[in-house]
Amino acid sequence: MEKTRLKELREEKGLSQIQLAKILGVRNTAISNWEVGIRQLDIDTIVKLCDIFDVTTDYFLKRVEY
Question: Which of 19, 47, 50, 54 is the most exposed place for a label (fewest CB within 10 A)?
């Protein structure tokens, strides 16, 4: 089950999984696995993603709505 807003934020920014993977220096399969909840994100990657999407970690992790 999806536990983050990764897919939603990626699509809002107009990025493909491949483009985001290049930005992060990971394989595009990692992005897919994170989006569907097969793999969990580590804290460093969460922080990087929050910086990329200009959101708080609470928002990214669906702890708050705004």
Answer: 54
- Whether 65 is in a domain gets the answer no
For the beta carbon of residue 37, count every other beta carbon within 10 angstroms: 12
Question: Which residue is listed with tokens 């669906």?
Answer: 62
**Residue 60: Cβ within 10 Å count:** 20
What is the reported pLDDT for 2?
A: 60
Amino acid at 3: K
pTM: 0.90
C-alpha closest to that of 9 among 20, 1, 25, 18: 20
Residue 3 sits at φ, ψ, to 5 deg, of -120, 0
